[in-house]
Specification:
Elements (H helix, E strand, L loop, with lengths): L6 E3 L17 E5 L4 H12 L3 E6 L5 H7 L2 E4 L5 H11 L3 E4 L15 H21 L4 E7 L7 H15 L3 E5 L1 E3 L14 E3 H11 L5 E5 L7 E2 L6 E3 L26 E9 L6 E10 L8 E2 L2 E9 L2 E5 L5 E3 L4 E4 L5 E6 L6 E10 L6 E2 L2
Parallel strand pairs: 2-3, 2-5, 3-4, 5-6, 6-7, 7-10, 8-9
Antiparallel strand pairs: 1-12, 10-11, 13-14, 14-21, 15-22, 16-19, 16-21, 17-18, 17-20
Helix pairs in contact: 1-6, 3-4, 4-5
């Protein structure tokens, strides 16, 4: 289940401001270049006139990448300093994150849940930090178009999508791959699905998409993005789904109809503290909305603007806040209650954070 994406006005950037047309002649840093879709992307990107830096952590894959037309870049996404140097040296216009950590044998896929979750969170965050240090190129990242059962991998997908959209990037929401080299070479997987070659073609086309979520399946679906001509910023806060009852795997995605709206107002480095940044945004709660249990690696202050909001941290008292009232939580607090007190009226509040760089804005908690 995907969260609804809302948009706010953004200060225009360079390539991030582009949308609606396929750009040409870009320098593309492709992470996961030796993977099943990466190998199909390289020749298509080269034919489109782009220069591709193909990142792999496997020395025995560099010759393959060179034959496909990429400049091989041997680097592990978890080696932060090496990654930062590799990205800065390549000077990309686009970072395309197609990283996964999955076994060759599909029967062992359950054993790789934590590894794949790590590459979607820590690995993706390292790429974001590398982008920030190299001029903030546009970022596109692989996600999935089907529902996962609650667990590390599902939470990692939600965090990847939130973090990419917060950087004005594009989430590529793929159906299950089928075709040569995939887990489904001889049979069709359940929907949503997409042939691996079609997925690669659509990914090249997505280079020109504005910020948002692009669904890439055999059945074309509406892309969730900004309909206004002005430049947009998508900022999606992590949605942790509490799933009850029996789950049917591989169900088609159904967009949530009730979500908060996050509108970013400011992001600034905190002077004198190189590992900290100041964030400010507003949050709109629709009637009856309640956030899942979470925490922040941040000092958080809340100021209610409209309606009434119920807040509580673990070990503290539940309080109902009216316009003009405030609430505070520190990095150790677990936010167990955060909901609109009214089932008929919306609520709105201002959030001010002193946040540790490189950590997710919102982290699930139990």
């Amino acid at each position: 289940m995907k969260a609804r994406i809302e948009y706010a006005k953004q200060t225009p950037g360079a390539f991030q401001a582009m949308g609606g047309s396929e750009p040409e002649g870009l320098r593309i840093f492709l992470a996961g270049a030796s993977g099943v879709i990466g190998q199909r992307l390289i020749p298509r990107l080269v034919r489109a006139g782009h220069i591709v830096g193909g990142m792999t952590r496997s020395p025995n894959k560099t010759d393959l990448l060179r034959r496909l037309g990429a400049e091989p870049i041997l680097c592990d996404v978890f080696n932060r300093e090496a990654l930062f140097k590799a990205v800065c040296d390549f000077k990309p216009d686009v970072i395309l994150n197609e990283l996964t950590d999955l076994p060759d044998d599909v029967a062992k896929i359950s054993e790789y849940g934590d590894l794949n979750a790590r590459i979607r969170t820590e690995g993706n965050q390292n790429l974001i930090e590398a982008a920030r240090r190299s001029g903030s190129p546009k970022i596109l990242a692989q996600s999935i178009a089907w529902q996962l059962p609650d667990g590390p991998d599902a939470r990692a997908v939600a965090e990847l999508e939130r973090s990419i959209l917060a950087e004005c990037g594009v989430v590529l929401s793929y159906g299950q791959f089928y075709g040569p080299g995939t887990y489904n070479e001889k049979q069709l997987p359940k929907e949503p699905r997409v042939h691996i070659d079609q997925a690669a073609e659509r990914t090249v086309e997505a280079l020109g998409e504005p910020t948002g979520l692009v669904v890439i399946t055999d059945r074309p679906e509406k892309r969730m993005t900004n309909s206004k001509p002005m430049v947009a910023l998508a900022f999606l806060i992590t949605s942790i789904l509490i799933i009850t009852g029996t789950l049917m795997a591989q169900n088609a995605v159904t967009p949530s109809t009730v979500q908060e709206t996050i509108t970013p107002l400011m992001t600034k480095d905190l002077a004198g503290f190189p590992d900290k940044e100041v964030l400010m945004y507003t949050v709109d709660f629709p009637p009856g909305f309640s956030s899942p249990v979470h925490r922040h690696e941040a000092q958080v202050s809340v100021y209610v603007l409209e309606g009434s909001v119920v807040m509580q941290v673990r070990g503290g008292k539940e309080v109902t806040l009216q316009p003009g009232q405030t609430f505070y939580e520190d990095p150790k607090d677990i936010h167990v209650v955060s909901r609109n007190a009214s089932s008929t009226r919306p609520a709105k509040f201002l959030v001010f954070l002193i946040h540790k760089k490189g950590t997710p804005l919102v982290m699930p908690a139990m």
